[in-house]
Every structure is written in structure tokens, then in C-alpha cells.
Design brief:
Length: 764
């Protein structure tokens, strides 16, 4: 069997729809790889018609261009301007962060380079010419590259195949230019009588800069921009940001106010037609250029056509290679976009923290790599946060009620389904004891059920008998005696309509084959089509349920827990009252959000009264149901305010799991924006959860002011000593992460095989 690569597919005739950078670069690469190819590019506009002014490309993209086409790279390099700094101006204070490394050039210059390269290679460029429909081209050409932009006619003509989703967002923006070069990438915030406006500016030549003005729709309308003539718009924008522009004017390139549209497609190819660049995907300008993604698409498409034996497999390989990269970029872009949409939340932050928050908004720049780029700036942010010298943010103490946690790491509640008759046994002692020894500031139990019928599964732990309380006291004693300084918290809950199911590994959310118990819920709605239909609770049945929580809380206090969390998330009983998708009641406990809050607040008040006053109480909520018609982020803020008004010391902000058909937007730290909003809109301390997996993420979220504590689940299953290892990896040795005496010999990373063999010094 030969190891030789498969022959490249016979692609003799290529049609490219759209003469933007992505389409032109794809044409040049495909022609360079096979000069015999006949390649035609259709562009409906003139050669120098373009949208916007400057283009920013990363070093990674430039490296790919250099490797694939040194001629194009050399031409671009001659035209690039480079700089390292980012300036953030907020409330008359400017903070500068260095070491970032940008390269930019004018969009017209980029197009001119690509036009010249295409002509030199023999590509047929047809300007001011509408392309024939993609379906017609597909019959006459071996490959059709649809690079026809965000408003792609090709995508719309075959929407049944590509299945696009186009989402419009809350801000209006306009691309303008200034006739001088900023000396840094500049973000400036203006608080006007109409609302907040922001400037994004960067140089793209020795004497020109791109200037993007952005604001929320309601601010744009209140300021009168909706009715302003183009000249008036430009003059007013220049006046608002006169200091940043040194009193100079702005100019337009047929610029108009736009609403950013995020484009996602289920498929990128249809037969021999393939989408590229903005036709396939868009990413908000605040994290970089769509041109960057389009150029990288072109590189990948050309490579896959060389590597695969036929067009269908080449297009499949192209999509498989690019889709994860694009999805990651779009997640980062969405985080950045939302940050600017929610900018008013952060205006009260100290200027340096505000700057750090802006720099880390997309989660691609983190505390650790910002420290590598600019240690001076990052150290100043840490000092403002209150970090003692040499102490990472995650190892600064935090006080909840009368409890001071030695660090900001929480072992998140994780159902173990390993109790017998609700009694925690040796497994729980070892499981929770190991995490306590692992250095976290707060270790939480799984959801502990307040009654036998309130269990999720037969393996769920409880606090509805004295035997269970005594078993929990054994675990609490171990935590306090063997890991002094570790706080131990209990999460109390009732399964509601999600009860009477199999152990997770036997079939999650699947009803028991036998031995089922009756379920109760706010409304008679089963969780899934296979689930048992719960009994809709009558108002006169609610007091006894409330007393089950109270009795469990009293037992928890006697067991020695330091903190109590009330579980009002994930579709369990109290969460079921909060969500409009699961609460269809018409009495005093259903309807408006205020009414849906009534019973959870009654339970909270009763538990708060029973729980010792010096010990804190938190509440876990689902801040969104990830389903149409469910709990919204606005609702979550109101819910958090209500619990805080009743005495909650912090809100543990999770999401989803309320209905079985929810559609979460999974990704790194994907739930943290909800905690961020609650904290910065209400001032209530929050615990952030949701795919927070690295100590770098923890430090970043804390320093940016997006959370007060970080709860991690799966990382603590992978590594019970996650917190201690995080301390070791950051060279921290201090009171916030003490190694247990028997483990101190292991507080340094074990040695491994040598990897630093001497390199050759001479060539003969």
C-alpha cells in the first residue's frame, strides 16, 4: 500500500463570485498551484470600490500568506504599519497596555496587491459585472467559490441547503477615517447626554486611521443620527471625539450606519459550490478583521483541493478544518460584541480595571498572556484589586456574610448518585475530603435532597433523617480537622418533576423501570415525553414542602456546614416555579415573575430564619433557560435582586437544564456573562460557573470584575488537587493554598525526562 498523497482533483475551471480579499486570494492561490487552470472572478463593483478603510491581519495569518505566496507577502509587508500599544480612554483617564503586536494596511492597498497578483498569474478579473447565478456557473465550472459577502446571493439562493442563520445585534456603527495615524489601537468611551458612545480607532498607513463609531440603537436614535444627513453625522461624530481626533475632522467612503449581522451556516458547500469568508460566517469587527478569516479560508480551501482526490472530499475537508476555528472565533467575537453592547454596566469600574476588562472581553486575551505582553500594566491591575505582592488574584480572600474564604475557588456541586437510602457513605467522605485537601476555598456537596420523594435518583443523598445528618457530620468533621481553613457548604434542593429517574450512568433522565415514586411540580408538565407526569401542587400543599427545606436546613446546621445554598436552578422544584416554561399556574404562585418568585422566596425566608445568622446563604439560579419563552437575562437580574433583598449573600449563576429541549451556546466560560451582568448591574456578589477550566480564566474573570468566586466541577473530577496545582504552577506559596502536611513533599511538579539536550553549534 502506497503512502503517496492522493492526486489532486481535476479542477480546470474555477468561478469566483466576489472580488473582495478572500475571493481574490483564493483565485491567486488556485492559479499559482496550477497555472493551467482557467479562473474567472466576477465583481459587481469597480476595482477600487470598497467598504471601510483599514484591514488588520494577525502574525498567524501573515505567516500562512508568506508560506503560500511569498510574492503577495512581500508586497503586503512593504505597505504594513505596525504598532504594539492599546490605549483605553475612560472618564478622562488613559491607560496604555503594550506588547500586543498589530499589522494593518489600507483595504484599497490590499485589493491593489491582490489585483496585481491575479493579473500576473493570468486570472480573468471582471469588474462592474454581475456574476451569473451560482447554479448556472456550477454546470459550466468545476468549482464555484462564493465569496459574495455578508449579503451573499449565493447563500440565499440555496438557503435550503446552506441553512443560514443571520442574527442582528443591538448596536449601530459607522466606518469612517481620519487623516492622521493613531500611535496605538485606541478605544475611547464618551458618556453623552443621549447615552454611551465608543470609538474604535487604529492606523492603517503613515497618515491615516480607521475610526469606527459605535453605540446602542436607542442611543443612536436619541442622538438624532437616524435622521441626520451624512455630512452632519460625520461632523457630530468628530465633535463627540474631538480630543481623540486632536480636533481634526473625519471623512467617509459612502459610509452609512450599520447593524452588525452574525452569519452562521449549517453547511458551507452545495455540490461543487462552496462558501468563503463573510458568505459563510461573520465575526464582529471588535476582535479583528473579517478579512483575516476570509484569507485563512482561501488558504485552507486551496490546500484541501491539493490534498484531496476529488472536489466533494476537498470541500468536506475544507469545512472540517475551518469550522472549529471559525466557531471559536465567533464565540470570542460574540463575547466581545456583547461586552460593548453592555458597556454601560462597566462605566463605574475603576479606570484601570475597566481597561483590563475591555482587554480581556473576548476571553482570548487572558491575565496570563496579558502579563507576558505587559507586566507593568497587569501588576498595577493586581495591586488595585488588592492582591498582596506575589499573590495571584485567585488566592486573595473573600468574605461572604460571616465567613471568610481563603481563596476564590469553589468545588461546584456535582451529583454523585452514590448514597444509600439518602445516607452519604465512605465514597462521599473520600470524594469531598479529597477535594477539601486539594486546596479549594469552598467545597460544596452535591444537591442534597430535602425529602425521599425529592430525590432525583435512588442514589441521591439527603438530609431528611437524623442518620443522614450524622453521616454528613462525619464528612464535615473530616474537612474541618484535616483541611483547616476550608469551608464546607451544602446545597439543598428538591427534584420536582425531574425525580424518580435512573442513576446517571444507567440512563440520564430516564424513568426508573420499577420502584417509581410520585412527583410534584408547580404544573403537571413532564420533563420529557418519557417522564412521569407530576402532580400539580395545590397552594395548601406548599407549606409542608417549605417545612421539609427548613428541617433539612436545621439538620445541616447541626452537621457543621459553614454555608447553605438553596437550589433554584436546573428545572428542579424551586426552579420550576421561576420559569414561565414550567410554571403555568393561575393562582398567586404563577403568572408574573413576582408571582413565580413567591414560593421560592417563602422557602428562602423560612430557611434563612432556621439557618444560623452568622453563616452565609447563597442561591443557585438558571439565568437563562436557553429556550424561547423562558427565563431571560433581564429576568435573572430581577430574580437575583429579589433574593438579595431577602438576605442572600451571593448568587450562584448557572443556566439551563430547565426544559429538555434547551439549546445552550456551549463554549469556554459560556455562562459567565450572566454572572457578570448580575454582579455589575446589581452589585450583588456572584459565583460564576460554566466551563471555567483554567486558573488563568479564574484570574482573568476576577480581575475584570465579572465575578467574585469561580466554581469548577469537571476540573475537580479530573484533578482533586486542582487548586494546589494551580498555586504550584503560578509559583505561589502562601496561606491561601496550604499543602496538607503529609502532602508537602509533592508540592513541586515531579521531574520528567530531559528535553533540553544541547543543540548543534557547528556545521561542517
Amino acid at each position: 500500500m502506497s503512502d503517496a498523497p492522493a492526486a489532486a482533483p481535476a479542477v480546470h475551471r474555477v468561478a469566483v463570485i466576489g472580488g473582495g480579499p478572500g475571493g481574490l486570494y483564493a483565485a491567486a492561490l488556485l492559479k499559482r498551484l496550477d497555472p493551467a487552470r482557467e479562473i474567472t472572478v466576477w465583481e459587481k463593483n469597480a476595482p477600487d470600490d470598497t467598504f471601510g478603510f483599514g484591514v488588520v491581519l494577525s502574525d498567524e495569518t501573515l505567516g500562512g500568506i508568506e508560506h503560500a505566496d511569498p510574492v503577495v507577502y512581500a508586497a503586503l509587508r512593504e505597505r504594513f504599519v505596525r504598532w504594539d500599544d492599546i490605549d483605553i480612554v475612560h472618564r478622562d483617564t488613559r491607560h496604555t497596555s503594550g506588547g500586543h503586536g498589530f499589522a494593518a494596511l489600507g483595504r484599497r492597498a490590499l485589493l491593489a496587491v491582490l489585483h496585481e497578483r491575479c493579473r500576473d498569474l493570468g486570472v480573468d478579473l471582471r469588474f462592474r459585472t454581475e456574476a451569473p447565478p451560482a447554479a448556472d456557473l456550477a454546470t459550466a465550472y468545476d468549482l464555484v467559490v462564493a465569496a459574495d459577502g455578508v449579503h451573499s446571493a449565493t447563500r440565499e439562493a440555496h438557503a435550503d441547503v446552506f441553512r443560514p442563520a443571520v442574527t442582528s445585534h443591538r448596536c449601530r456603527y459607522i466606518w469612517l477615517a481620519a487623516d492622521f495615524a493613531f500611535d496605538a489601537f485606541r478605544f475611547e468611551i464618551a458618556e453623552t447626554e443621549h447615552g454611551v458612545m465608543q470609538l474604535h480607532g487604529y492606523p492603517f498607513s503613515a497618515d491615516e486611521s480607521t475610526v469606527i463609531i459605535e453605540m446602542r440603537e436607542e442611543v443612536w436614535r436619541a442622538a438624532g443620527f437616524a435622521d441626520a444627513e451624512p455630512g452632519e453625522t460625520i461632523d457630530r461624530c468628530a465633535k463627540v471625539f474631538a480630543e481623540a481626533l486632536h480636533g481634526r475632522g473625519l471623512r467617509s467612503n459612502n459610509s452609512s450606519w450599520l447593524t452588525f449581522r452574525t452569519v452562521v451556516n449549517d453547511r458551507w458547500s452545495h455540490g461543487n459550490t462552496v462558501l468563503l469568508g463573510d458568505a459563510a460566517h461573520t465575526a464582529h469587527f471588535s476582535i479583528g478583521s473579517g478579512t483575516k478569516l476570509a484569507v485563512e479560508d482561501a488558504l485552507a480551501l486551496a490546500a484541501c483541493l491539493q490534498e484531496q482526490p476529488d472536489v466533494p472530499r476537498a470541500l468536506a475537508a475544507y469545512e472540517a478544518e475551518r469550522r472549529p476555528v471559525v466557531a471559536s472565533t465567533q464565540r470570542a467575537a460574540q463575547a466581545s460584541l456583547q461586552w460593548f453592547e453592555e458597556l454601560p454596566l462597566y462605566l463605574g469600574q475603576p479606570p484601570r480595571q475597566f481597561a483590563f476588562n475591555l482587554l480581556t472581553r473576548s476571553r482570548r486575551v487572558t491575565h496570563d498572556n496579558l502579563r507576558l505582553r505587559d507586566e507593568r500594566f497587569t501588576t498595577a491591575v493586581e495591586r488595585d484589586f488588592g492582591c498582596p505582592e506575589g499573590t495571584p488574584p485567585m488566592f486573595t480572600p473573600f468574605t461572604l456574610g460571616g465567613l471568610t474564604l481563603r481563596n476564590r475557588v469553589v468545588v461546584s456541586p456535582m451529583d454523585m448518585y452514590s448514597a444509600r437510602d439518602g445516607v452519604p457513605g465512605d465514597f462521599h467522605l473520600v470524594h469531598l475530603g479529597a477535594r477539601a485537601l486539594g486546596g479549594a476555598g469552598l467545597v460544596m456537596t452535591e444537591m442534597v435532597c430535602v425529602s425521599e420523594r425529592g430525590r432525583i435518583t435512588p442514589g441521591c443523598a439527603g438530609l431528611y433523617t437524623d442518620e443522614q445528618a450524622e453521616a454528613w457530620a462525619r464528612v464535615a468533621d473530616f474537612v474541618h480537622e484535616q483541611s483547616p481553613g476550608t469551608a464546607f457548604g451544602v446545597q439543598l434542593g428538591h427534584a420536582g418533576r425531574k425525580g424518580s429517574t435512573k442513576l446517571m450512568w444507567e440512563g440520564i433522565d430516564e424513568p426508573l423501570d420499577e420502584g417509581n415514586w410520585p412527583l410534584v411540580a408547580p404544573s403537571a408538565l413532564p420533563y420529557t415525553s418519557r417522564s412521569q407526569v407530576p402532580h400539580a401542587l395545590r397552594a395548601d400543599e406548599l407549606p409542608s414542602l417549605r417545612e421539609e427545606f427548613v428541617a433539612a436546613a436545621r439538620r445541616a446546621a447541626r452537621s457543621g456546614f459553614d454555608l447553605l445554598e438553596l437550589h433554584c436552578a436546573h428545572g428542579y422544584l424551586l426552579s420550576g416555579f421561576l420559569s414561565p416554561l414550567t410554571n403555568r399556574r393561575t393562582d398567586a404562585y404563577g403568572g408574573s415573575l413576582e408571582a413565580r418568585l413567591r414560593f421560592p422566596l417563602e422557602v428562602f425566608d423560612a430557611v434563612r430564619e432556621a439557618w444560623p445568622s452568622g453563616r452565609p446563604m447563597t442561591v443557585r439560579v438558571s439565568a437563562t433557560d436557553w429556550a424561547e419563552g423562558g427565563t431571560t437575562a433581564d429576568d435573572a437580574v430581577a430574580i437575583a435582586r429579589a433574593f438579595a433583598a431577602h438576605g442572600a449573600d451571593a448568587i450562584d449563576v448557572s443556566t439551563g437544564q430547565v426544559v429538555s429541549d434547551d439549546a445552550p451556546a456551549y463554549g469556554r466560560s459560556y455562562q459567565t456573562p450572566y454572572a457578570d451582568r448580575i454582579r455589575n448591574e446589581t452589585g450583588i456578589p456572584v459565583i460564576a460557573v460554566g466551563a471555567i477550566s483554567s486558573w488563568d480564566d479564574v484570574n482573568s474573570l476576577l480581575l475584570a470584575g465579572r465575578t467574585d468566586l469561580c466554581a469548577l466541577a469537571r476540573p475537580h473530577l479530573y484533578d482533586p488537587h486542582w487548586t494546589l496545582h494551580a498555586a504550584a504552577e503560578q509559583n505561589y506559596q502562601g496561606p491561601a493554598a496550604p499543602w496538607p502536611h503529609p502532602y508537602r513533599a509533592g508540592s513541586r511538579r515531579p521531574q520528567t525526562g530531559r528535553t533540553d539536550a544541547p543543540k548543534p553549534r557547528l556545521s561542517l
